[in-house]
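Researcher: Before we compare anything, I want clean individual predictions. No alignment, no superposition, just each chain on its own. First chain goes here; please echo the sequence and then give the structure tokens.
Model: Echoing the first chain and its structure:
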Amino acid sequence: DRPHPDQLRAAYAGFCASRDDVACLQAPLIISNVGSSWISAAFALEYAALFRLLLPMLAKHRLPMPLGGTSNHLRVADLKACGGWDPYNVTEDADLGLRLYRLGYRCGVIDCPTYEDAPTTRKVWLNQRTRWFKGWLQTWLVMMRAPGTLVREMGIWPFLVFQVLVGGMLVASLTHPWMVMLILTTASYMMLGFPEAATLDALLFLIDVANMLGSYVILLVLGRRAMLRDEKRKVGWRWVALPLYWMMISGAAWRAVFQLHFKPFFWDKTPHLPTVSPQPVRAASVPSP
């Protein structure tokens, strides 16, 4: 990882300007090797949407933030007060962000980025994403041990946001292959004349298609909206592989379900090969806390 040279100053200034309950400031992660492969291009779209749009929006409205990756700047006293890092959760950053929230702390963002390189091969990407899904599953299960208590501690609206962010992501990833198979089988039946047009079955089929295509379009639109012009150029037409990328995401999610039972604390290390191209000094503008 290559942090922006002003990142520590930005974090200090961010804490000075924040409310006392802000325990963590998250810097945006930007993918350097966007054009190395279609996998890194899709990865870059994900990161752009997450770190430059979603997390700043959650921070602005003081909603639960599942922290991600490196460059989390924390007040040491607050970190100790909430019990520190969970040594058994393989996405300890996401766990910490949500645990901070339920204990009354909040997270913010700064705009000085950290540059890192995404996996470019299926094997490396799959191992990393499997670990992420396993950690998200661990986080959701631990948080939901006592749902009533969690609602009282977080509040009903933040609780629902947590369910959409973590629970909804898990459900969508695990069920995506079934949605694809349903659409393909229904389409084949429609080619044979069943169901007939203007029937409830045909309407449900169109809704299913719209939902699936919508998931691809939302990721593409949000990712490209947050990217700089040079990043968009490097992505190019690689975005057409997003349906395959979604199927890979689902495969990683199911692999994580099995790993959670057989080796829940196994951490599959991810090799990062640094890019040799020079990095830009500034990223796209990200709202301050």
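Researcher: Okay. Second chain, same rules.
Model: Second chain and its structure:
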Amino acid sequence: MANDKLIVTPRRGLAAIVGLATASLLLVNIPKEESGRTVKVEMAPDGAATVQHISGRQYLRAYLDIVGVPTACDGLTSYHGRKIKIADQFTEAQCTAMLEEELVVHAKGVMQCTPGLALTYPRRDHARFAAVSLAYNVGVANWCSSTARRMFNASRITAGCDALLPWNKVTKNGKKVVSNGLAGRRSRERAICLKDAA
């Protein structure tokens, strides 16, 4: 339902891992990238987030993504280690809670292998956002072996932001092909990331 407010509780929440600004960026941008929907997020000082659906389709029933993987909510292909099945259905509240939990899992992985994005570094909110957004899309293991991660750990923020761009391909019929959707997403992540390089 549009305009319903959902509270995301801080239970060692996202803001504790990546900071308030990065958590807000993730909770606003991931639904836009994954589902095309618009949400409004208000962050409390304790890290609790109030998420309000404004517009756009919500995928409460599972669907097949561009490469045929069952997906639900805001890009979830699994939850608590269980793959999403095409028959799965969720409520809006479940989707919001699941998104926050999955972002926490991905953020922890990113922060563990990327000490160059530690909260003690100033002006890293946008780079942290880009790193977690990419990891949410391609997996933590891929992030941790990426050139972007190596650049961020070396405090080469611009180079790290630029290294996001090659992650624009999907596998179709056994071949890697550029996805216009992923190319656009990587460009948007890079643009946000570069705000820390200025």
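Researcher: What stands out in the second chain?
Model: Residues 6 and 93 are 7 Å apart (CA to CA). Additionally, Strands lie at 5-8, 38-43, 49-55, 63-64, 70-71, 78-79, 82-83, 169-172, 175-178.
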